[in-house]
Amino acid sequence: MKGAVKIAYWDTAQGNPPRLVGQIRGTPTIKFIYPSKKNKRNSNKKKIVSDYNGERKADAMYAFAAGRMPNSIQRVNSKKSFDAFAEKADKYALPKLVLVTKESSSTVEAKSLSTEVRRRALVAEVRASKPNKDIIAGLNLDDWLRDKSGPKTVVVALKGEGTTGKAIPMKVSGKYPAFKLKTAKKFFAKFALKKPYYDDEEAQKILAERNAAKEAEKKSEL
């Protein structure tokens, strides 16, 4: 979970913990803190604090944290859902980033990446399943799909509007690298907006031009 979840501790000998942490009934106490979905679009001030009451074992704590991580991934299970993903991204002038995976569920790294670029890019996850075969072929990943020894997840940036734009896969020295958070973050940074779409000048310019074109079309029809 390195880079995906931050771990901190509070020594109760120092006194009461910060108000956000809440009441401590005994030690050791483990709490998981994450942003509330009710936050305004430009704030992460509101937090949800969840007490951990499971086994004090690494696997159990890992599963607890992984299950409560924020997740902004758009799941793709068909061409229709892939089109819906692209339509949503284009609506807000967001870059499209696609995780194509042989994993059976979203990984910690995938969740972290989707949260990292939230409102600066839209992230889709396409499972390597029969309904998605044509989507994977359209992203030029047939070679990856056939390779049983390659990484389970590959990252692709999809340029242009819709789903038929240029697919740019993440590669290192011409090969698909292992799906690691640090490497994927660097790739995401090349395509994601620098600021949330509502504060990004380039995104707002695209949206303004699109609206102007629609208005001009309406007037021409009168």
Task: Report the span from N to C terminus.
Answer: 58 Å
Radius of gyration: 21 Å
Identify the CATH homologous superfamily of the largest domain.
Answer: Glutaredoxin
Strand content: 15-25%
Largest sheet: 5 strands, mixed
Helix content: 25-40%
Mean pLDDT: 89
Task: Write a concise synopsis of the structure shown.
By secondary structure, the chain is α/β, with parallel strands linked by helices.
Descriptive overview:
The chain has helices spanning 58-68, 79-91, 108-116, 133-138, 142-146, 181-191, 201-221, and strands at residues 30-35, 47-52, 74-76, 96-101, 122-127, 153-158, 167-169. Helix 3 (108-116) runs parallel beside helix 6 (181-191). The chain is globular and about 70 Å long. The longest helix is centred in the last third of the chain and has 21 residues, at 201-221. The chain starts with 29 loop residues before the first strand and ends with a helix. The chain is α/β, with parallel strands linked by helices. Helices cover 34% and strands 16% of the residues. Strand 4 (96-101), helix 3 and strand 5 (122-127) form a beta-alpha-beta unit. It has 2 domains: 12-68, no CATH class; 74-191, Glutaredoxin. It has a 5-stranded mixed β-sheet, sandwiched between helices. Strands 1-2 form a two-stranded antiparallel sheet.
